[in-house]
Amino acid sequence: MEGSVRMLGAKERALLLALSETEYCTSGTLAKALGVSSKTAQGMVKDLREKLQKNGADILARTRHGYLLQVNDRALFETLSSGENAAAHFIPSGSEERIHYLLVLLLGQVDYVKLDDVSEELYVSKYTISGDLHQVEEELAKYHLSILRRPNYGIRITGREIDIRNCTAHVLANYNNMMPDGGAGYRNMAQRISQCLMSAMHKHALHFSEINFRNLVNTIFATIHRALQHAFIPLLEEDSAPDINENVYAAAHYLAELLEAQFDIRLPEPEVLFLALNIAGKCNYSSADREDENVVIAPEIMALVDDMLESIYESFKLDYGTNFLLRMNLGQHLVAMDIRLRYGMPIENPLLCEVQKHYSLAYALAEQAAIPLHRHYGRNVSEDEIGFLAYIFQLTLEQERKGFEKKNVLVVCSSGGASSRLIAYRFEEEFSKYLDNIEVCDVFHLEQYDFSKIDYIFSTVPIHQKVNVPIIRVEDFLNQSSMRVVQSILEGSSADFLSAYYQPELFFPHVEGRTKEEAIFNLCTQIDRVMSLPQGFYSAVLKREELARTDFCPLVAFPHAYKVLSEKTFVAVGILDEPIRWVENDVQVLLLISIADGEHPELQKFYLSITSFMQDTARVKSLIQCRDYPWFMRLLCGENGGSRENNTQKQNSKTQKEYESL
């Protein structure tokens, strides 16, 4: 009987439920109920009959009538068809589920898996499984993994252990319901891991967001899962060993001890280092959260922030180079992100789709800012990471609209005096819009200083005592040649500024194209007939498309050149005759943007208006239906979606009622 616990799979139980003890069922009826062919149903009946005969039942077959379930030993049969023996065993239905199932299966063991066994288990052909494996390999390639095929043995995953860990953390966390126990083992382990992690957090004063806590639990689950299979992280080369601070490293050692006791395993030193890396890459680096150490944003990090903001300026002409709060938020975020990107540690953002849908401008800025990060680290920056950056840019956009909460800063030098005052003067000159008070102090008087009203410290020297505010080393921070005066955003002005960007002669109601390349080329051709485009403009737009996608909302894309080429700012509106697949979305409206050099005091308002339009599918569909420039301008200014005729009738009715009331 012990063997029968594992004998009935999900489709076998479904077949058992479809059979009747009182009426015959044809193979066609069974096939329809199971979603398989009649031939497959007949084979399943044969297999199930063999198992039932050992467990108090049988299946009778009668020509032209079908199959009848016959129970000979009711008590023995019910132990098979219910209770523990009916424990969930996931059988995928469809290619997408099979791909995830194969990933779970391959990552769940280190031995070879035979395709014949998988084919028999899933009731599909070996040819079907082979076809699914091509997409499995595409998923594995995202983690730099591949499938090793060995004749007479089968297949297994091969690659670096750290990449297998990253892939395992993602797959088993999201598809553990496909595991043999239905995910019960994962949930049990995750709960025990959470308890160990909470103990380490409290002991070493570590702080994680809820999202990062779950990410870390999944990473530790993958570590335990692999350790139980005797698969361990190799020793890092000396020149690639990370610089982890003492508190994080001590927390990793303590966590390893708890995990060893909890799961009866041994984690060697490279595994402890792997835990430390993941803790450092997911920890909150806010000084208010730190009790025993300072949060220091290194000059190298601030240099990356410079590159990110310069990239945004080159593409969008939005000048955030001296936005003090944005720089600080990005700098603190990059402290942990730097570790993740250096060591290829993925992180999942469960709110990614919502960010892309509702904060499309912020996401576009974040995607542009990620381009220099890709160059610096030699790795693609994932959409999940870009989503986290988008939060920061969205906060900046909101602050720009609503005003700023000015900050207080302290400038620290080795001896105070003229050098501190000189830096303070430079701060006042460059960042007065963001700062309320600037104070100076030398390093010798820090112990007596009251930091309760200080938000940030800028220091030219190391600070060894504990302070509860972020510290920024300023050697490189103030040496950027690209410091530009921040232009005030004019709030509350009318929508007349839109006419500076949109002209009726650059509204094209019919554009052809079966691919995005064709669509962009044809739109550029029509623009060139109205105004002469600079040489290489089309190629510059395509290059930007290669760097990052521009279809953040359904039906709309806003392609643009990766650098400034035109001497005149313009937006060309093109409506395709038929929608085409861009990258993530089907697109029918193109908003090709070119921002020239110079002052653009209302540029942010322009971007906000365009993203508001893009996010409103009703307005976009109304434009596709009407294809009219005046109507487009009304839609930009907030006109409700729907047909132009209906909206005109509503407006006339409203005017008539107002007239009658007079």
Characterise the protein shown here.
The chain is an alpha/beta fold. The protein folds into 5 domains: 3-86, Winged helix-like DNA-binding domain superfamily/Winged helix DNA-binding domain (Arc Repressor Mutant, subunit A); 95-178, Winged helix-like DNA-binding domain superfamily/Winged helix DNA-binding domain (Arc Repressor Mutant, subunit A, Orthogonal Bundle), CATH 1.10.10; 184-284, Orthogonal Bundle (PTS-regulatory domain, PRD); 287-486, Orthogonal Bundle (PTS-regulatory domain, PRD), CATH 1.10.1790; 495-650, Mannitol-specific EII, Chain A (3-Layer(aba) Sandwich). Helices cover 51% and strands 12% of the residues. The chain has 24 helices and 13 strands. It has helices at 10-18, 27-34, 38-53, 74-81, 95-107, 115-122, 126-141, 161-174, 184-204, 210-228, 246-263, 269-282, 299-316, 324-342, 352-358, 360-377, 383-402, 417-431, 516-530, 537-547, 603-615, 617-626, 629-636, 644-661, and strands at residues 57-62, 66-71, 146-150, 154-158, 296-297, 407-413, 435-442, 456-459, 471-473, 502-511, 555-557, 570-581, 586-594. It has a 5-stranded parallel β-sheet. Strands 10-12-13-11 form a 4-stranded mixed β-sheet, sandwiched between helices. Strands 1-2 form a two-stranded antiparallel ribbon. Strand 12 and strand 13 form a beta hairpin. Helix 10 packs antiparallel against helix 12 and helix 14 (324-342) packs antiparallel against helix 17 (383-402). The longest helix has 21 residues, at 184-204. The radius of gyration is 31 Å and the shape is flat. The model is unreliable at 1-6, 83-88, 480-494 and 650-662 (pLDDT under 50). This is PRD domain-containing protein. Residues 643-662 are annotated as: Disordered. Keywords: Activator, Repeat, Transcription, Transcription regulation, Transferase.
